[in-house]
Amino acid sequence: MRLIGLRCVMKALMGLVLVGVFCGGxxxxxxxxxxxxxxxxxxxxxxxxxxxxxxxxxxxxxxxxLEENGYRVAPLDEVVATLxxxxxxxxxxxxxxxxxxxxxxxxxxxxxxxEKGWPFTVFVATDGVDRRFSxxxxxxxxxxxxxxxxxxxxxxxxxxxxxDRADGETEAQWLARIRADVLKAQARLDKxxxxxxxxxxxPYGEYNSKVAALVAELGFLAFxxxxxxxxxxxxxxxxxxxxxxxxxxxxxxxxxKARTLAFPIVSMTPWDPETTDRQPELEVSVxxxxxxxxxxxxxxxxxxxxxxxxxxPGKTFKVRSEKPLPPGRHKYNLTVPAGxxxxxHWFSRQWIVREE
Length: 356
What we know:
By secondary structure, the chain is α/β, with parallel strands linked by helices. The chain folds into 2 domains: 7-16 and 28-261, Alpha-Beta Barrel (TIM Barrel), CATH 3.20.20.370; 267-353, Immunoglobulin-like (Sandwich), CATH 2.60.40. It has helices at residues 7-13, 15-19, 56-68, 76-85, 103-116, 126-130, 139-147, 171-193, 209-217, 251-258; strands at residues 36-41, 43-44, 53-54, 72-73, 93-100, 121-124, 151-154, 199-201, 221-223, 242-243, 261-262, 265-269, 274-275, 281-286, 297-300, 304-306, 308-312, 316-320, 328-337, 344-353. A hairpin with a 6-residue loop joins strand 19 and strand 20. Helix 8 (171-193) crosses helix 9.
């Protein structure tokens, strides 16, 4: 039995939307309420790697919570089409994604999702499959899943740190290498599995303005690994997803994230997450909505809550870490309660701090 009985009809109706080239802009302003929460997993029941693994008892709790509380698990291409149209989502819309194409997706996650008839998308790092690494699915296994309605998309070929240049590499050479890597992965997916949508998940969730511009130029809508829900003002160059792991996959945490609403960002300065500033300042302008802005909070990874300074009350604010951030990846987590106080608007701003 295929995953979703009506999915073929839906895919046909949306075909013109999905085969077109994705732009790299920001969706229109809010037309109403409704967000989609996208969850990201890597490994299932593989306790060798707790930072990227979800224990099977945790995953079963996640699925049970979604089912028992009336959530709709939507195909990711449908979520993308809704974002592209600027439409709102039905209440309690979520999507499930898996990065890398590990074998545990096929062995452990797929039987549970098949039983429920729920769709999901696997972002494939194709070199690992081509080299027949034991931790990865095979192309035959992926063809089997695709025949059942599972979707596959681009996670690069070599899974590089896309923002890093090789020694002696010029900017032009670096960007040409990233371009070739992305296009190689798409060619392998299309050859082995048939045409796959032009969606890309950044390896490690890392990108900067040049990488994002390149990916958009190639016609891809891109996904990060920064927390938050997707909604009408989501940036198509960096769609948020909630990463799931043993540490962050408790049912209490999952419930909170499943109820999250999109943060109504109109603009963000600087846009580029790569910086040499050890205390980067972020300025955010927000749109209208139901957010209770006088209860806006910002939490900096490793530092806790920091001050929010309003430039224009209810319109524009600034946040900055109180202490210098060491080189590496960091996040400013922005949360504000919705008007009914049953959920939070949530957005996580990633910083990649470099040595000067």
